[in-house]
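Q: What does the assembly look like in three dimensions?
Context provided by user:
Components: two
Sequences:
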Amino acid sequence: MIGIIGGRVFDPMNGINGTIQDIWIKGGKIVSQEEVDPQKARRIDASGQVVMPGGVDLHSHISGAKANAGRKLCPEDSRRLIRARTGFFRSGSGYTVPSTHLTGYLYAEMGYTTVMEAASAPLVARHTHEELQDIPIIDKGVLITMGNNHFIMKCIQNGEMEKARDYVAWLLEASKGFGIKIVNPGGVENWKYGKNVQNLEDEVIGFGVTPRRILSALARIREELKLPHPPHIHGLSLGRSGNADITVETIKSMEGIDAHFCHIQFMSYGGKPGEFPKSAAVKVAQAVTENPHITVDVGQVLFGPATTMTSDAPFEFSLSRKIGAKWVNNDLESESGGGVVPLTYKRNDPVHSTMWSIGLELFLLIEDPWRVYLTTDHPNAGPFSGYPEVIRMLMDRDFRAQEFEKIHKKAMKNSILPELNREYTLNEIAIITRAGPAKRLGLKNKGHLGVGADADITVYANLENKAEMFAHPAWVIKDGEVVVRDGKLIREQLGRTLYVSPSYEKAIEKDIRAHFDNSYTVSFENYPIAPEHIGPSEKLTCD
Amino acid sequence: MTLQNRNGDKEASPITLRLKEPTSIPIEADTVSPDHFIGRSLKDIAALPVYFGRRKRNLGDVFHIEGEESDQVIVEGDLAHVKKIGYGMTRGRIVIRGNVGQHTGACMRGGEIIVEGHVADRAGIHMEGGRLWIKGNAGHLLGAAYPGERRGVNRGVIIVEGNVGSETGAFMRRGLIVVMGDTGEFVGARMIAGSVFVFGHLGKRAGAGMKRGSIVAFGACEPLLPTYRFESVFQPVFIRVFVNRLRQWGLPVNIERTEGLFRRYSGDITALGKGEILIYDSNE
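A: Here is the predicted structure of the complete assembly.
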C-alpha cells in the first residue's frame, strides 16, 4: 500500500487539471482512499510536486529484427552510451539503439511505463517477443505489419473481405500482436521488383490492388474485429519533398473511419519532388483538424545521431544513396520488407533543420492535444531519451526561439515557427505523453489515475527547466512498486506484454495452411507463438 | 629523473607509476593520464578507479605511485596488458618504459605520449591532437577508427620508429603518421585526408578506398591496387617541409631520398579519387 500525498495531480482523462489530491495504491492498482488503511500505507510526500500517470509511447522501435540489424550495422552507436553493471542492474550500451535491458531502464528513468513496438513482421514476431521479454519494467506490445501481406492482398483482389478479416484475426493471434500496422501499402511489395508506389491509385505488381484499397480494407477489418487500436499508418512517399499532398489525400481517403498516422513530420513536406523540402505543416495540420477520426504522432527530429529503421525498404534504399551511408535491406518473404540506415541530424544542414521545425510546427498547429502525440519515431528521428528536450521546446517559447536561432538560415526562411506563440501547459503535456496515446491504444487501465487503473505513476519535481524536470522524475511507480527514485533506478521487475486475440472462423486455417505450403519457408505448425512463449502477458478484449 | 619542458626549465619530479606485479589480466587504465592527475594528491590519485579484469580496483592497488603533483607521468613495468593509457588526454606528457597494451593514446587531444617499447593494437585511434611517439613497433589499427565509425584520426602526429601492423591510418581525417619501418596491409584504407609517411616497406593494398590525402613511400613498395592511376614524376615541395620538421624532432631521416623524384599515383578511383600515393623513384 502506497499513498502519494499532496501532489498536484494532472489526470486529463478524468478531467483533473492540477488539483492537489492524494492517490492511493493497493495491489498494483489505484484504489479509493476508503480501501486502504492510511496508518499502514507507505506515504510518499509529493507536496509541491507534479503527479501524472506513467508515460505511454505508442510508436517506438525497441526490439526485433530491425533493432538488431541496427545494432549490428552500427557498432559505433554502442560507444556513445555505455552503462556499467551496478549491483542488481545489468550493463548495457547504445545511444540510438540501446540494448534490451538498457531500453527498459532508460524508459523507466524517464517516467515511461508503457511502450508500443512500432512494427514487426509476423514472421519475425517470435524474435520481437523474445527481445521484449528482456526489456524490464515497462509494459509493451507489438504492432504487426500487414500492408504488403500477400494473403491479404490476394483476398482484396478477389473481393473476399470476410476471408481477409479472419486472416487478420488469425495473424494477430498467431503473432501475439497488438494491432495492425500499415507501412507504405503496396510500395514494399513493388520494391521487390525495384519499384515503389507513387500515389494511392498505383497498382501493386502481381495483385492488381491499389494502396487505397489496402488501406480502406484494413481500416474496415479493424472496425469489424473491434480491435482496441485503429490501423497505424505509415503512408506513401515518406521523406520525399511534396509528399504533403499525398498525406492529405490519404487522410481524406479514410472516409470517416478511425486511423492513426505515425511520424507525420516525415510526411509533411512541400515543394517539388527531388527539390529542397518546404514546410507543409499548415496543410497537414488543417487536414488533421478537419478529420476528427484521425490522430497523429509527430516523430520530432532531434539534432544528433539517429538510426533510421523502417519496413519501408524502398525509402531506406533511396536515403542510403542520398547520404552515402551504410545500408541494410531486408526481405520478409510474402509479408514485408525492411531497411536500416544510420544518419546524423545536423543543425547546419538546411534539410534537417527544416524537418526539425516542421515537427514543432505540427505540435503547435494541431490544436486538439488529444489527437497529436509526442514521439521521435525512436530511433528514426532521434532516440526517445530526447523527449524531455522536446517537452521543453513545447512549453517554453523563449527556449524554442533560442533553439530556432541555431538552425540553418535557409530553414529559418521557410519556417513559420517564430509566429507560433503557443505554449503547452502541463495538462496538455500530460495528454500528449500519456492520456492521449493510452486512449488511442485503447488501454483502459493506463494513462489515467482513476480508481481501477494500473498503478503506473510518475511524480516530477516542479522545476523551471522542463527538460530537466521530465528527464529525472522524483518517483516512478510501476504496478504499485517504486522503481525509480530521484531519476535513479532502484528496482527491476518484469513488465507485461499486451496482445489481442480477436475471434475468427476456424475454417480459415485450411486456406492459410495451403498458403504456407505454397509460399513459406516455415511450416504452418511452427508459425504461431504460444501464449506461454511471451512471458508475463495481458490479453486485451476486443469489444 | 627530471623532465624538461619546452623552454628547457627543470620541472618538478614527475609522477611515477610502477606496475606492482606482472599479470595477464587486462587492466583498463584510462585514468592514467595527466588530466586526471592534475590537482590531485598522490592519495587521491591512488583512489582513482581502474578495471582489473571485470573487477573495479583503485589505481593504488595496481601501481606503486610516487612523485609530486605534475603533468609529467612515467609508467613502468610489464605493461603489455595495460590498456587505454592516456585515453583522451589533453595536456602534459606520459613516458611509458616498456611494452604497452591496446588503445594507448586513444582519442588523445593534446600533450605527448612517448613509448620506449612496443605498443599493441589501436594505438592513437581517433586521435584529435598531440603527439604519440613510439620507439618500438606498433600493432594493427594504428591511428585508425573504431568499428563502424566513418572518421578516424583528426589532427595530431603519430611517429613509429619500428614497424606497424595492418590498417594504419584507416579512415584518417587529418593529421600525420610517420612510420620509419615496414607496414602491413591496407595503409590509409578509406582515408579521407591527412598524410602517412612510410620509410620502410609499404604493404599491399595501400590506400584502398581512399578519398583524399597522401601516402608517401620512401622505400620499397608492393604493387599498388589497379584502381590507382599513374600521373607523373615530380619533386614535391611539401615533403621537404615535412621532413625538415621531422629532422628537427630528431628522427634519422635520409635527406637524399626526400630531395629525389617521386612517382605520383592518384586514386582510389572507386572512391572519390582525389588521394595520392607518392613513391620514391629510384630509377631517376
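Follow-up: Helices of chain B lie at 34-37, 42-46, 59-62, 237-248, 255-258.
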